[in-house]
Every structure is written in structure tokens, then in C-alpha cells.
Amino acid sequence: VESAGARALEAQQLRSEAELAHLRAHLEPHFLLNTLNAIAGLVTEEPREARRLLVCLGDLLRDAVQERGELQRLDKQSAWLRRYAQILEARHHGVLSFRWDVATDVQQAMLPRMLLQPLVENAVKHGALRRGDGAGEVVVRASRREADGALVCVVEDNGPGMPAADVRAGAFGVQAVRRPA
């Protein structure tokens, strides 16, 4: 006889796996299409940059589809995000930049796979790229909180700020990382 606790744990695991699959599917369609269009535009003008972006894109897709469990070390997630950022910086050349401030003592910390990607995507799309002066920046920080040693990850942008209204229905990025503990 299976206990209620075991069923709840199994349901939570299935929900987490479904959320991860949804996140992976969310990344690929629009990001892949936009990146391929950017690469196509670079093929004749800047073939070296086109090859570099193809390598970045190939690495991203390989890492995104590999099944390696629900958790991932922060250094691995950060490396993936840096490749993602390189593609975004190339697509938005001169108007978008990234800064990384990840403390060395948190590199081995475990967190849900691709947890930070929707936050970075939102910071770019709804923040940094909405600056009127073309100087959008996204900063990714990770450190330990002094009080209790908890891992703190922050993604911030220098865009115009969020409206006072609640997150709209269907806003995938923020909702993907807001789930009950």
C-alpha cells in the first residue's frame, strides 16, 4: 500500500519534471528562430561571428535537451547563461550588455535546472531593451547571505522598472520560478 506522503512526493516530482519540460520547450521556439535569423544575417557580412554564434547555439541546445536530473550546479547554469547572453549581446549589438558577479564560494551550490534563464530573459525583454538610450544592462549576481548562509541569486536590469500592477496572467518567466516550496 502506497502512503499519501509517497504519492504527494511522486506528484511533486512529476510536476517538477513537467515544469522543466515546459521551460525547455518555451526556450527553443522564439529564441531559436531569432538566433537563426541573426546568424543568417551575419553569414555574408561577418562569417566569423556567425560561426561563433552557431557554436554558442549548438552548446545551448545540447545542454538544454540533455536529461541530467532536476538540479544543476550554479557554475554549470552560469556557464549556460553566459553562452545565452553572448547570443543576446550579438543579436542586440551595442544596446545590451551583461555583467556577472557570482561569488566563488557558491559555484558548487545546487539549484533547479534553468531556474535563472526566464529571469534573465525577462530582464532583457522587459527591462534592459526598453531603455531609450540603448545602454541596457543585465546583472546576474549570486552569493551567500551572511545571516544564514542561504544562496541568493539576483537578476537585475537597468530598464524602466516594473509597473505597479500584478504580473499578468500567462507571464511565464516570473511564474516559472514562483512555485510553492
Categorize the overall geometry: globular
Mean pLDDT: 82
Compute the number of strand runs. 5
Sheet having the most strands:
3 strands, mixed
Low-confidence stretches: none
What's the arrangement of strands in the largest beta sheet?
2-4-5
| Rg from Cα | 18 Å
What is the number of helices?
5
- Can you write the helix and strand succession as a string? HHEHEEHEEH
Strand content: 15-25%
Helix content: 40-55%
Structural class: alpha+beta
What can you tell me about this protein's structure?
The structure is a single chain. With 181 residues, the protein is α+β, with helices and mostly antiparallel strands. It contains five helices and five strands, in the order H-H-E-H-E-E-H-E-E-H. The strands form two sheets. It has a three-stranded mixed beta sheet. It is globular and about 60 Å long. The two termini are 27 Å apart. The mean pLDDT is 82.
What attributes does this structure have?
5 strands, alpha+beta, three-stranded mixed sheet, two-stranded antiparallel sheet, 52% helix, 181 residues, single chain
Which helices and strands occur, and which strands form pairs?
Layout: H1 4-45, H2 47-65, E1 71-73, H3 74-91, E2 96-102, E3 110-112, H4 117-125, E4 136-144, E5 151-157, H5 172-177
Parallel strand pairs: 2-4
Antiparallel strand pairs: 1-3, 4-5
